[in-house]
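Training component of the fellowship. As part of building independent skills, the fellow (R.M.) carried out the full modelling exercise for a liganded target. The chosen ligand was protoporphyrin IX containing FE. The inputs are recorded below so that the supervisory panel can assess the work.
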Amino acid sequence: MNKIYNLTLASIIIVYLVVLAGAIVRMTGSGMGCPDWPKCFGYFIPPTERTQLDWIPNFDYNKNQIIIIEDELFFAIDDFRSADSLDIDNWEKYTKHDYSKFNVYHTWIEYINRLIGAIAGISVLILFITSLKYINKKFLLTFLSFLSLVAILFQAWLGKIVVDSNLSANTISIHMIMAIILLFILFSILSIVNKKSNLKDLPRNISVLIILSIIMLSAQIIIGTEVRKFIDIKMELYNYSQKEKWFEEIPSIFYTHRSFSWIIFILNIYIIYMLNKIRLKSIIKYSVNALIFIQIFTGILMYYLNFPFSTQPIHLLLSTIIIGLQFYFLMLYNTKSNEVKI
Ligand code: HEM
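Fellow's submitted model of the complex:
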């Protein structure tokens, strides 16, 4: 075990925690728990009570701090001390969107999501700094670490766009795709560092099948986010309750999503068969299939049992774990030339 391996593994785990936290944010409808970004209502540590967002006389306000006046958000134009009565000239209306509610649970769920995101950023930054040591010996490693840093910074910026766009469905989908790209980069680093000299490269036909599975999984995830856009509208419409109505008039893309998962499952059974034929022993080959099976099961639960508690975040998280693991497997058995002793 070496430092880069540990740091990469830690970054991967934290990125998965960010994905999970993001999914919980969505399940609980907490996305707009913080109307601004990166601060939350203008604070580094958000308020715990609605009264903290009322205007207060003789109080030191910081620039961009937010208050609510008659159900509208206003932010402080500059640092100033308030007088005995409200002077509206010190405040500007927050026009990025018309969100103005305060719900302590939503605010703190969204805030914890951002905190885990920040920890992921720090972890990837440390990984990049550590990788600089290998810039001459193994440039690819440093380059990929740099790419992961760029990807996570881009992801943080996208987070702001998601908030500014009032959680527009398309930006959320791009956010999801970027998370997968970031995981691919981190798994590539892990495979380079973890490559053992006794691991053989996969025969070409099996690699092609695995690449096909990864492409199909990517398509399935994109289709899944389309299904999710529809469910999102229903969740809003029924105020996160009456789950039995969320599937009413579901577009045909859902049935494509449902059927396509079986094709992916069968393809992966065939991949196991081929791997067994060449006597390749790896726990990952069975894990991918087991997880695809559980993934389909959570989908069935959502459909037939009206979204039992936490099936939504599990369904999302599993999809990123499956595609990440399969990509890692492919890299691990195709990077002989990148073998590196650290
Ligand atoms: C290989 C199998 C599958 C994969 C990789 C997959 C992946 C995904 C992904 C990534 C999403 C978007 C989640 C989000 O953005 O929050 C999604 C949504 C969804 N999927 Fe699947 N899925 C699979 C199989 C199934 C099956 C078999 C069903 C149903 C029988 C199903 C039902 C759903 C539903 C209902 C949604 C919307 C969930 C929500 O609104 O939270 N999925 N899927």
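The panel noted the following from the submitted structure. Residues 198-342 form one domain. Residues 273 and 279 are 10 Å apart (CA to CA).
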